[in-house]
Amino acid sequence: MNIMKYMCLASLFFPIAAVAQQDKTLCDFETPESYKSVRAYDTCPTSPFNLSNLKGNVQVVENDLNAEDPEMGFAPNSSNYILGVQRSRYGSNTFGALVELKEPLALKRETQYVHVKFYSTQDAPVMLIGLGNRDDRPWQPATIEQFWSVPTSKVHAGAWQDVVFPIMGANGISIKSLLVVVDRQSPHNQMSDFAVFIDDITLSSKANPFFSKSVYPINYEESTAHTRGDERYVKNVKLGSQSVAINQNSDKKLYFNKTANIFLAKPGETVTPTIDWKGIWMHGYAYLDKDDNGKFDVDYTNSGITNARDLVSYSYYKDKNSAGSRASSDCGVGLPSFKIDDDMKPGIYRMRYKVDWDNVDPGGSTATGNLITGNGGALIDVLVNIHNDEVNLFRATEENGGGLNGDVLLADGKQLTGRTTPFGQAFVIKSKPAEGFVLDYMKIRHGYNLEGASTKNENQQWKEFVVQASQFVNNEYTIPADCVDGDIRIVPFFKSDPTSVNDATVKAFEVKAGQGEMTLTASVPTHVDIVSVQGSTLFNGTVEGTQTICAHKGVYVVNGEKVLVK
């Protein structure tokens, strides 16, 4: 691990003193002395890595993935050596690299965080398993699994990421080894192996990654305090009649992330942004990330603006406002109206309000003698839903069996796909199971980019909720108006009708729990969702025939039914 690269970034991420006092390198692979051993490992008892002579491919290699990231402006991993792991298609969903630590890690009854750098050649959800024993039971094997930790995000291919694993346990337990699971998906559909690299395993008190690609940056720490007290502060921000409370005088912050609040607007609409402000001798600015690229773009010089781009409204810059009129320096924060582009694609966009003095830098003024931290300014981010009058509807299928054995229709009995419904108005859908089946539940996704990631540039694009069969009345369900806030994707899930089963009928799906595993049997392609009682997803996919899933000892919920693995 190269300590210097963290210290150079201390002003961006954390105080240098905090590194020395709170962060501890568990393993950095720079020398053989930084670890006891590394090898492939699988917790599944029936894994070929346990039952046969398969050894796996895990070894320390030279780091040729040390280039500077152009977006971050530095090399996220400039180490000389890293640990390479071949994700074998023959390993279970708990296969990975076992790193035997030089010094044991003590669990505590408080959350600690283990940071691990990952570089994967394929998108993959990861996991960390801690192996060790109790200090007062030295006869216990050092391979007893003491925790499973799943991060909030998966590893994306092609770039180094600092992935954070929260860990906690009883006092008096020493973790002797860490199993870095490089892909916790079941490999039943995996046709080939792929490479994953890991590095710099660090114990920390910090829940946030040491580095990440910044979106919508500001020029100061987000925790920077507001310094002008009751003299100058923002009360609320508005778009037309829509309002979000800020109360800067009581919260006393420079930056406010209010992206849980979403304003509404339509392409071609003229809107008026407002900053409700107490104070004098300041100016107002509003930005809208129109091309949705994760930053607010504006081209300017010290004499004026050359291309406003995402700067949609401002009260004053170099003697002018955004309406093109001359303005005096004491004009205040009143913002001119602006028009949403006619061809703006419906979606969720980031908008920023700023109070500053004669400065259009979206991150806040850093000019000597005119720091936004000193002039009493503010930065406020919200979201804007740019929507049409009608939203698109479609019925979808999923590889896990969603959409089979029945249909979902509109109240008039017609197909969903290709139809539209008015934005912001409730409407009725109908369930139509095939013969021999009944509705189990429906997944309803609403927003934009519905087949993509749920967030883009940290802006939530869509939400999803599940409607159980018990919520349908006479096979009908009314989708609430507040969920008709964008396009709508519906996937129905049906199950065999137990009242139609006879002696000749084969049970469509069953699960049998065993020692460290569960066996799934499905006579037809069946969606199976396995979740631990702690809420972690163990498996989510389609099963046809018989399939064995390795599982840690405990209780799991399989398609709504509890199963005990011994």
Briefly characterize the structure.
Helices cover 5% and strands 45% of the residues. The chain is mostly beta strands.
Structural description of this entry:
With 566 residues, this protein is mainly beta. It has four domains: 3-204, Sandwich (Jelly Rolls), CATH 2.60.120; 233-386, Distorted Sandwich (Coagulation Factor XIII, Chain A, domain 1); 390-500, no CATH class; 509-565, Immunoglobulin-like. It contains six helices and 38 strands. The strands form ten sheets. Strands 1, 3, 4, 6, 9 and 11 form a six-stranded antiparallel beta sheet that branches. Strands 2-5-10-7-8 form a five-stranded antiparallel beta sheet, with no helix packed on it. The protein has a five-stranded mixed beta sheet with strand order 14-23-22-17-20. Residues 1-21 and 501-506 have low confidence and may be disordered. Residues 1-20 form the signal peptide. Keywords: Signal.
Task: Please outline the helices and strands.
Layout: H1 3-8, H2 10-13, H3 16-22, E1 24-27, E2 37-42, H4 48-51, E3 58-62, E4 81-87, E5 95-106, E6 112-120, E7 127-134, E8 144-149, E9 161-167, E10 173-181, E11 194-204, E12 233-239, E13 242-245, H5 248-251, E14 255-265, E15 270-271, E16 273-278, E17 283-288, E18 299-301, E19 304-307, E20 311-314, E21 338-339, E22 347-356, H6 372-375, E23 378-386, E24 390-395, E25 406-410, E26 420-422, E27 427-433, E28 437-447, E29 455-456, E30 459-460, E31 462-468, E32 476-479, E33 487-496, E34 509-513, E35 517-532, E36 537-550, E37 554-558, E38 561-565
Parallel strand pairs: 14-23, 24-33
Antiparallel strand pairs: 1-11, 2-5, 3-4, 4-11, 5-10, 6-9, 6-11, 7-8, 7-10, 12-13, 12-16, 15-21, 17-20, 17-22, 18-19, 22-23, 24-26, 25-27, 27-32, 28-31, 28-33, 29-30, 34-35, 35-36, 35-37, 37-38
